[in-house]
Amino acid sequence: MNITNKTVLITGGGSGIGFEIAKLLSEKNNQVIITGRSEERLQKAAAQLKNVSIIAADITDEASVEKLVAQINKDYGKLDILINNAGNAFLNNLGVETNTYQKAKDEFDTNFFAVLRLTDKLLPVLKAQDEAAIVNVSSILAYVPAGDISTYSASKAALHSYTQSLRFALQKTTAVKVFELMPPLVNTDFSKDIGGENGIHPNVVAQDLINAFENDEYEVRVGNTAYVYQLSLTSPAEAFDMMNKRAEATA
């Protein structure tokens, strides 16, 4: 897939993985739009990049999403790539937690339902392009859950399933390609409560996505995600044990 001279929207683009993706795509002469709840964070991020504009929006709020979509149509007139990167996560021990429902609802609202709504709203403009793409950022946890972030793991498993179905639905009738970016633990502010300092740099994740675009590699298993995926197929119990020893080590 050609990834120059495109118009790109990245949710959660003010920091972490989203920021690194914005940086690499902006360097390839794309017009990059980053969105997130904090306008101040977005402004700080955009000041460090070129060809990047901002739209402050809460993707879990329907009215905010409507304004975001309307502004993209009005100000840019097209969209070539949608990167659903924004996420929400809580530590959640099911054995002792008394607020599982609310934590799970907040996670699913951001990690799953917001992705469905924004994708639905922007799919018509994506379909109108000669070549377009949707990228859903899931996780290694889509394959094997971690007990300390159980409902977050479930939300990413749901996103993985949806992404596969969306790819199947679009591949024969449209020019919209559907990618899934599956990082392992990444060293970002987002992951600091679950041992993120032990994770890989977000630039590694961003570079793997760029490579995947260029090679039309639709399932992007970053770092040890590829190994965990294979292990989950050959020995699910061993994969689960390995993942949750990691969780114990960072508890």
Notes on the structure:
The protein is α/β, with parallel strands linked by helices. α3 runs parallel beside α4 and α7 crosses α8. It is globular, with a radius of gyration of 17 Å. It starts with 6 loop residues before the first strand and ends with a helix. The mean pLDDT is 93.
Defining traits:
251 residues; alpha/beta; seven-stranded parallel sheet
Brief rundown of the structure:
The chain is α/β, with parallel strands linked by helices and 251 residues long.
What is the element layout, followed by pairings?
Blueprint: E1 7-11, H1 16-26, E2 31-36, H2 39-47, E3 52-56, H3 62-75, E4 81-84, H4 100-127, E5 132-137, H5 150-170, E6 176-182, H6 202-215, E7 219-221, H7 225-234, H8 236-249
Parallel strand pairs: 1-2, 1-4, 2-3, 4-5, 5-6, 6-7
- Main sheet: strand order: 3-2-1-4-5-6-7
Percent of residues in beta strands: 5-15%
Give the number of helices.
Answer: 8
What pattern of helices and strands is seen along the backbone? EHEHEHEHEHEHEHH
Overall SS class: alpha/beta
Q: What overall form do the CA principal axes indicate? A: globular
First-to-last CA distance: 41 Å
Uncertain ranges: none
Using the CA coordinates, give the radius of gyration: 17 Å
Mean model confidence by pLDDT: 93
Helix content: 40-55%
Number of strands: 7
Biggest beta sheet attributes: 7 strands, parallel
